[in-house]
Amino acid sequence: MTARYHQTQSGGIPTAGIVLVSIYIAAQLLSDIASLKIALIAGFSIDAGTLIYPLTFTIRDLVHKRLGIQAARTVIVLAAGINLFMALFFQLAAWLPQDPAWGLGKQFAAILGPVWRIVIASIAAEVISEFIDTEIYHLWQSRITRRYQWMRVLSSNAVSVPVDSLIFCWGAFGFTLPHDVVWSIVAANIIVKGLVTLVSLPSIYLVKEK
Question: What pTM, to 2 d.p., does this model score?
Answer without folding.
Answer: 0.81
